[in-house]
Amino acid sequence: MTVADVTSHSALAILTVSTALLSKDYLLALVATCSPPFQTKVILSKKKNELSLSVGPDILTHRNAILRSLCGMGLHNALDTVGSSPTLFLGGHSSSSYSGASPVSAMAMAGISSWMSVADSLRSGKDVSEVSTLLDQLNGYLRTRSFLVPSAEPTLADFDLYLAIVDGAGKDLENMVESNVHTRRWLEQCGASLQNLAAVAAKNAEITKLPKPTIPKGLAPKPRLLPLFFFGDENASIVQAAASSVALANSAKSGDKRDSKTTPQKEGVANASVGGGLTEEQKKAAADKRAKKAVEKAAKKKVQPKPKGGNEGVDVELDISALDIRVGKILKAWEHESAEKLYCEEVDVGEETPRKIASGLRPFYKLDEMQNRMVLVLCNLKARNLVGFPSHGMVMCASNADHTSVEFAIPPEGAKVGERVIFEGSTGEPEAENKVAKKKMFEKLAPDLKTNESGEVVWKGAKCMTSAGPCKALNGMPNAQVA
To answer: Which terminal residue of the chain has fewer beta carbons within 10 Å of its beta carbon, N or C?
Structure first.
C-alpha cells in the first residue's frame, strides 16, 4: 500500500480504497480529493475493489454510506458548510437534520439516500431503456424543482445520478433527452458544477498526491436566446423609434442646420424625437394601427377550419392508428457485445432490407428462441443508437406488472410478413417518425395497449387484427401491459 503524502495522525476519517476502484468511481475520487487533507487520511490499496472508511470505532464498507459520511458528520460537516467546501455536497442539510432540528433537512437527507439508490440500480442494470424511461420521468419531477432535493445547488444525489445516466446512455444521451427541457437544464447544470469541482480537486491533488479526478463528458450546453419582455406599448415604441431615426437622418444631411422649407409634419417628428414624446398625430396613428391588428386577428380566428365531426374547439383524440405496427420475422439474433441485457436482431418487416433492432430480452429468452420468430414490430419510431448499436423499431412484448415475466406479442399463423396490423374501429394512417417522437404519441397510447383476459392484444378493448386473425401474447399472458 502507499499513503498520500499529506495526512494527519489525528485524522477524523481513514479511507482505504483500491487504485483501480478510485479511477473508475468519479464521484468517490472527487469527494476524496475535495476532503480536507488534515481531517482525512487516504490509503491507496492494490487489492481489487477494496473500500472501507474508518470513523472512530465505526467501519463503513458500503460505497454510498461512505460518501454520505465523508460529506457529512464523518468530517464534522466540513464538506457541507459554507466557506469550508467548494460546494454543499448535502445541500447544507447535514448538521440541521440531526436530533429533529429540521424536518425539512431530515427529509432532504432521506431523499439523497433514496436517489443514490436509484443511481446504484441504474449502474447495476446497464439497461439503456431504463435510462431513457428515467430521463422522461425526471422531466416531470424537475418541472417544479431545481435539483433532486431542496438545495440551491446540486448535491451528492444529483452528481451520483448524473454520472450514472451519462455512463448508461453513452453517446445516445443527446437523442434520449430530446425535448425534455427540464431534464436538459438539470443535466447541463450538474455537468457544469462537476467540472468546477474537478478544477478545485485538481489543485488539492497537487497537495495530497492523490490522482486527479476526471469527469466524463455529458451534454453540450445549447445556446439560449435572452428573454424578451413586453409591456403592451410596443406599437407606440416602434413609431417613436422610427421618428427618432428620421430625425437623426435629417440632421445628418443638413449638418445640424434647419431647413427653412421643412414641412410642419417633419417639424413634429423632430420635436417628438427631441422631447422624447409623440405628437397627437403619431399617437392617433399608433392607436389606429393597434385597432387594425386586433380586427385582423379576430377575423383570422373566425376562419379557422372546424375539426371533423363538427365539434368546434375540441382537439381530435389521439388514436392507436397513429402507430405503424407490422408483422415481422426475426431473421437473425445475437448477443450485444457490451450490454448484458440486450439482443441485437435483424427483422424482416416487409421492406427492402431487414431492420436492425435492439431488444432487452436476454433475461427472458435464450438465443435459439429468438431465431426465426414471428413478432409484432413498432416501426415508426426514430432510429437511435442503443449502447453503440443502431436500433430502428421495437419488438413488442407483453409483461406483468413488475416486469418479471415477458412474452412476445405474436401474429396468428398465416399472417403475412410486413402487413400492418389494424385495431378494430381504427383505420387511420400512421404518423411520421418525427411527429411520433415530438408529440410522444407512443407514450400517450401505451397505457391502454394491453392483453385481455384471453391473452389477445387490445387497445381500449379493441382487438389487434391481421388478415389471419387476432394477435396475442405468446403463451396467452392475460391482463398484461404491451410495449
So the answer is: N
Task: Let me know: does 201 contact 213? Beta carbons within 8 Å.
Answer: yes
- Lowest-confidence pick of 26-40, 124-138, 240-254, 409-423: 240-254
pLDDT of residue 84: 79
Alpha carbon distance, N-terminus to C-terminus of the chain: 52
Summarize pLDDT for 443-458 with one digit per residue, the tens. Answer: 999 999 999 999 999 9
Residue type (1 letter), 226: L
HEC letters along 417-435: CCCECEECCCCCCCCCHHH
Helix (H) or strand (E) holding 395: strand 394-395
Cell numbers linked to 366: 435464450
The kind and range of the H/E element at 235 are: helix 234-254
Query: Is 358 within 8 Å of 343 (Cβ atoms)?
Result: yes
Cα→Cα distances 156→26, 61, 80, 116, 177, Å: 12, 18, 10, 8, 22
Q: Which residues of 293-324 are buried (b: 16+ CB within 10 A; e: fewer)?
A: eeeeeeeeeeeeeeeeeeeeeeeeeebbbbbb
Condensed to tens digits (0 to 9), the pLDDT of residues 42-89 reads 888 888 889 998 888 888 899 999 999 888 888 888 888 888 788 889
Cell numbers for 395, please give them.
419488438
pLDDT in tens, 350-392: 999 999 999 999 999 999 999 999 999 999 999 888 888 999 9
Separation of alpha carbons 52 and 356, rounded Å: 45
C-alpha cell at 120: 446504484
Alpha helices in 35-180 (DSSP H): 63-71, 103-125, 128-141, 156-169, 173-177
Which amino acid is located at 120 in the chain?
D
